[in-house]
Write a structure and sequence with these properties.
The protein is an alpha/beta fold. The chain has helices at 2-27, 44-59, 76-87, 104-111, 138-154, 159-164, 186-191, 202-208, 223-231, 234-253, 259-277, 283-302, 308-323, 338-368, 370-373, 392-395, and strands spanning 30-38, 64-71, 93-102, 114-117, 122-124, 183-185, 197-198, 213-218, 401-404, 411-416, 419-425, 435-442, 445-450. It folds into three domains: 2-220, 2-enoyl-CoA Hydratase, Chain A, domain 1 (Alpha-Beta Complex), CATH 3.90.226.10; 231-371, no CATH class; 383-450, OB fold (Dihydrolipoamide Acetyltransferase, E2P). It is built from 16 helices and 13 strands. Strand 2 (64-71), helix 3 (76-87) and strand 3 form a beta-alpha-beta unit. Helix 3 (76-87) runs parallel beside helix 4 (104-111). The N and C termini lie far apart (126 Å).
């Protein structure tokens, strides 16, 4: 019996020294910490920055990825992609909230393995809102509630509390009983398991995490990476779309190839190139845009108006620009949120119409401005003085009849004596296939009316 007790005691001593040695070795381990910042609006550039961070952290065999966060939120689709990246990361992800982790920032924080907060910081207020800070319909809130619940569950945090950060209707006694969207202070987050420690800086975060020896490698983006991040900002994308549409509009208003077309092409390259490099803009999406532009050119030059081809061209241009902003796989949009799709199309459509309105305004302003007034010729060469710009053959066509081959709105094409001519309706519009009569010739145009 004494022999058995002695063997058990010896085994206990061996295990004790083994685990003690293991703990000491672990505490002396030199950790490699990869740090990057999220201190701006959650948008495609932040998603791209996160993807680069995880790739570099893997390449250097980092032990921990640390996010230094201070954000009021941003786009839900970008935040959801970042959340997914964190949840499935093989490298533990810590977040240090340095003041704010609101809305999309709260969702990203909940996905991290550990949350550390600076004193007087906040986390929560994750209601989905539009650009005017107004709450979106419940179908958007329902999706966000689901994301917050599932993320909290994945990290062992209370899903009901996470849901209350989205929905003010959720009542949790002693925590959220005010009918307001839940937002935690640092002390409240600590008390309810949504914060793992209070720290004033990165050094204190390491102390809270019981990491004594460590080396921090901070993300350092190259100039090219920063330029790409700048170009894929929603605001910059919107401006580039305005330049594309505006350049195309002015080019169609003037004969030949000029500066407006150059602006359109240059803006198109700046718009599509970074999206293509990031795998967002696929070949078929760029092709949609190109075909749309070609159809618009054909409609305005060949048919001198706007019809079915023009409408199809606008649809293809808008679709190509908007779909290039989405991270879809071919025709598979199953993992793209409806909010993400609506955001992409909203950016394009708003920029499209703002550009058209601005183009019309600038056209009128340029033509009516006194500065440009001096560039125009004001002398007249009257016909009574012997001046004429009309050829005799066109003058002789007055009185002849023909048929419209396109709709005259009021400009279009007509056929007279088996020859095609550009003509202008004297009044109103004339449909295709209508008999017409030439009544005058002015400014290198045949003037016609219904026969």
């Amino acid at each position: 019996m004494k022999k058995i007790i002695a063997q058990i005691y010896l085994l206990f001593l061996i295990l004790f020294f083994h685990f003690n040695s293991f703990a000491q070795n672990d505490s002396l381990k030199n950790y490699t910490i990869y740090q990057f910042d999220i201190k701006e609006e959650i948008a495609p550039p932040v998603l791209r920055k996160t993807q680069i961070a995880f790739r570099e952290a893997k390449n250097i065999h980092a032990d921990i990825i640390l996010i230094h966060m201070n954000t009021y939120g941003g786009l839900l689709d970008a935040a959801d992609s970042i959340r997914t990246k964190i949840l499935y990361s093989k490298i533990p992800v810590y977040v240090f909230i340095d003041n704010n982790a609101a809305s999309a920032g709260a969702l990203i924080s909940l996905a991290c393995n550990k949350i550390y907060m600076r004193k007087a910081s906040n986390i929560g207020a994750a209601t989905v809102v539009n650009q005017n800070s107004e709450a979106m319909p419940d179908k958007y809130q329902s999706y966000m509630r689901s994301l917050m619940r599932s993320t909290a569950e994945a990290r062992g945090r209370n899903p009901r509390i996470a849901e209350a950060m989205v929905d003010p209707r959720i009542y949790i006694q002693g925590i959220n009983d005010s009918g307001k969207v839940l937002t935690f202070t640092t002390s409240e987050a600590l008390k309810n398991g949504f914060c793992d420690g209070e720290a004033e800086n990165i050094e204190q975060v390491m102390q809270q995490a019981h990491i004594k020896k460590y080396k921090i490698i901070k993300q350092d983006l190259s100039f090219t990476e920063r330029l790409i991040n700048f170009l894929i900002l929603p605001t910059v994308s919107g401006i580039l779309i305005m330049l594309i549409i505006g350049g195309l509009f002015f080019e169609l208003q003037s004969p030949g190839i000029g500066i407006p077309l150059g602006i359109c092409v240059f803006a198109s390259i700046l718009y599509f190139a970074p999206l293509y490099l990031e795998g967002l803009a696929a070949n078929w999406e760029i092709l949609l845009f190109v075909v749309g532009v070609i159809l618009l050119i054909i409609e305005f030059i060949a048919f001198l108006g706007f019809g079915v081809l023009g409408f199809i061209g606008i649809v293809l241009v808008i679709s190509g620009l908007a779909l290039s902003l989405l991270n879809n796989k071919g025709l598979d949009f199953s993992h793209i949120t409806f909010n993400g799709i609506m955001t992409a199309f909203s950016i394009v459509v708003i920029a499209f119409f703002v550009s058209l309105i601005a183009s019309f305004y600038l056209s009128w302003k340029v033509l009516s401005s006194n500065r440009f007034h001096k560039m125009a010729l004001h002398t007249t060469q009257n016909r009574s003085e012997g001046y004429t710009t009309a050829e005799n053959s066109f003058q002789e066509m007055i009185g002849k009849t023909g048929t419209t081959t396109t709709i005259l709105r009021p400009v279009g094409k007509v056929i007279i004596d088996s020859e095609y001519y550009q003509a202008t309706a004297q009044t109103g519009y004339i449909d295709k296939g209508i008999q017409i009569k030439v009544v005058a010739y002015q400014n290198a145009q045949l003037i016609v009316e219904k026969a």
